[in-house]
Amino acid sequence: MQRMTSRERVLGAFARTGYDRIPVKHEGTPEINQMLLDHFGLATMEQLLRVLGDDFRYVEPPYCGPELKTFPDGSIEGYWGEHYKYAEFEGGKYLESVYQPFAGVETLEQLDRSHFPAADWFDYSTIRSQCEALRQQGVAICFGTAGDMDFINSIARARGTEQVLMDLFTDDPVYLAIMEARFQFYYDQHKRVLEAAGGLIDFTHIGEDLGTQIAQVISDEIFEKHFAPKFKAYFEMAHGYGAKTMMHMCGCVAAFLPRLAELGLDVYDVVQPTTPQTDIAELQKKVGDRLTFCGSVCVQSTLAFGTPQDVEREVKRRLALFPKGGLFLGPTHAIQVGSPLENILALYRTAGSLLETVDDTIMVIGRAGSHESTKVNLSKLF
């Protein structure tokens, strides 16, 4: 088949009309990305994404809202008034919530709504030009992150995980007010980005942690009451601007997939194949006619603890299962610290996306830095 641009490849896979190679979507922790940059002798994330063959790029409206404070203990403020600080472990670090402004709030009268962000806190004037530049590069254009919407995990960062799970069970009015505010904020922000883009965004991206390692987090009844109406409204809005919808969901979420497809979800990201019902072949059989999958190469097992041959075998299995499309290949989450370099290279090499030789053309790409931070921007946690 004739060589395709990244966008042609992605849209061909989405439509099941075929591709020259399977589309690829990379994600790694900052430490893993730095290891790859050092290995190839590269300077920017844009250079690395090109070498790995990542077919997706993200646009982002610059933040122009109230100053996000840095506190004496080194923690930084998030959009909802929560504070984050690095938790360090051998070889890496993660930002963790260390202050939750909505913890202990029991009544609506106690709820400090001054912590609620607004879509006006962002500058949308460059979105169109960002899209036009990426369209010239021939990549699939996305907007949003796994932290957008994200009513369980991200509200827990400002209220506490145990409290949020209890809130959903009891229909707590404080939680529901925060949930509504969070929905409206991201709905408005995504709508304004889509309006500014003028039809040039291919995929919008949101997230929700609906699964544990082995089962769903909430009941079908709670999902229908509190989540389904919001997802349906969002998916319809995004489709109205010509964008396809992508949703990041960790864990075992197989039970929700048929309903999410009915509501308007197009792409299930990131397919965590840790149970029989989330095996990629099983998912293809049950919902592969209604959803495109993204990810599926496990960062908890194969990439972290397998061999390059194990990785190669897993990738080839997927190539056989999706010869015409239906899968954007990549890891099941950010590739974690400690994952062998050889395994990561085997993933992209077997996919056919890895540039084995880095030439001068790649070395000068991305030095302006306009999009190079899309994978490591810490504000996306907020």
Topology:
Elements: H1 6-15, H2 30-40, H3 45-52, E1 56-58, E2 76-77, E3 83-89, E4 92-99, H4 127-137, E5 140-149, H5 153-159, H6 161-170, H7 173-197, E6 203-207, H8 220-240, E7 244-248, H9 257-263, E8 267-270, H10 280-287, E9 292-297, H11 302-305, H12 308-321, E10 327-331, H13 341-351, H14 360-364
Parallel strand pairs: 1-5, 5-6, 6-7, 7-8, 8-9, 9-10
Antiparallel strand pairs: 2-3, 3-4
Describe this structure in words.
With 382 residues, the protein is α/β, with parallel strands linked by helices. The chain has a single domain (6-68, 116-381), classed as Alpha-Beta Barrel (TIM Barrel), CATH 3.20.20.210. The protein has 14 helices and ten strands. The strands form two sheets. Strands 1-5-6-7-8-9-10 form a seven-stranded parallel sheet. It has a three-stranded antiparallel sheet with strand order 2-3-4, with no helix packed on it. Strand 3 and strand 4 (92-99) form a beta hairpin. The radius of gyration is 20 Å and the shape is globular. It starts with 5 loop residues before the first helix and ends in an 18-residue tail after the last helix. Mean pLDDT is 94; it is low at 366-382.
